Amino acid sequence: MSLASILLRLARPSLVTAALAATTLAVSAGTATAAPALTQISADPYTNSSSQHATEVEPDTFSYGSTIVSAFQVGRFTDGGSSNIGFTTSTDGGATWTKGFLPGITTYAGGTYARVSDPSVAYDAKHNVWLISTIPITSAIGVPAVFTSRSTDGGLTWSNPVTTATGSSLDKNWIACDNTSTSAYYGNCYTEYDNNGDGDRLKMTTSSDGGATWGTSKNTGNNATGLGGQPVIQPNGTVIVPASNASETSILAFRSTNGGSTWTSTTTIATVSSYTVHGSLRSGPLPSAEIDAAGKVYVVWQDCRFRASGSSCTSNDIVMSTTTNGTTWTSVVRIPIDATTSTVDHFIPGLAVDAATSGSTAHLALAYYYHPVANCTAATCQLDVGYVSSTDGGTTWTAPTQLAGPMSHSWLAGTTQGTMVGDYISTSFSGGTAHPVFAVASAPSGSVFNEAMYTPASGLAVAAGTAAVTTATARQNTFSAYLAAISYAQWLAEGGGEDSP
User: Fold this and answer.
1) Can you give the pTM of this predicted structure?
2) N or C: fewer beta carbons within 10 Å in the chain?
3) What is the pLDDT of residues 417-460, one digit of tens each?
């Protein structure tokens, strides 16, 4: 007799329901839909022999109205940074793109620095200016500043950069602006970064003139260390900054309620359980943060807590926590891309929330990279890009769509921390559809790579999902019920009575 038949004959209906629900989830959530057509939106034009060509990695995006701007590293060096920062801009909701490269930063584009890294994009609605934050790198691999490049013509051309902050060894900058006209701090823009030369001390600086000038950098209330912070701004002007701690073993948050004059001490959103992505791919549990129209903040990162086997993990899921005030966060939930028994490893998420939606009807879109088989090697790992969405604020999610892949790791830019597609990727909404931007690679031509920026040719729809998120407790209860059902079925098959096992 089959297991399904045995389960259907059980005298404990609740156990049957739990077991069959677990089986159904494993099937439905693990079935990927067909990949959409992609558009290449940039390519590496540089030829300097000191970096790797043709490579483009680590995109960020931001959208406002029908305009979408993306920025990314171009010509990756193995030991840090790139030949320049590329940008690509669509003014028609992703239908067509205008591409270019930032002026005045590196020696390859009229500047004085050897390299540049870590692009982040924002828009300041009050001053009608687009902003790209970067960190310039010296020939001695020093990072003495954070820069901001500005565009006043809709992201089509960019000025030489202005200095946002200075220090000794700066890293992981991120920029965001307050675009709520009723906010007391409308038009403020905030840049987060960390000072690696000071133990990754978290820093914040504020501009109120469209990024032309920036204030004195400030620490959190408890002088916290960390990296990868991503500021988001609530409609009332409160700035909430999720970040990783310096060791990437927990996700933190801090905030400002006075326009960046002061910043609170950090609170812990959650500890991180991280599976080391195989194949020497550069990847870590940095957060991706977004906010809905009502000010609810969503944070996702890669985490293996739902796939623990004894004292070790078998692969990462993408997990999520939310808040409405920046201090109290929900329990971590698992985004159900596939079953926890699958072999898939998920990492480097880029979350988007449709700014026209909120609450129980908020639209969420998530792009991410994954290995179909987690336990692979540099020679055997196959890298893909996936996508899932939600129309109910992240309570349920669609089955995954494969956007790109498979890619071999040997096709990717090499770094001292592994082969690279980026420490982060990004997704933004425009016109109700999602527009992720990500690196896609194909086989090199001799010593020349073929790794560039791509996006779906049409915006991706957001659909109602059927797979529900789970907490660690809920998963344990379901698993316990499943085991109990199996045990009871076997007992019946062996001639047992009707008493509970």
Assistant:
1) 0.89
2) N
3) 999 999 999 999 999 999 999 999 999 999 999 999 999 999 99
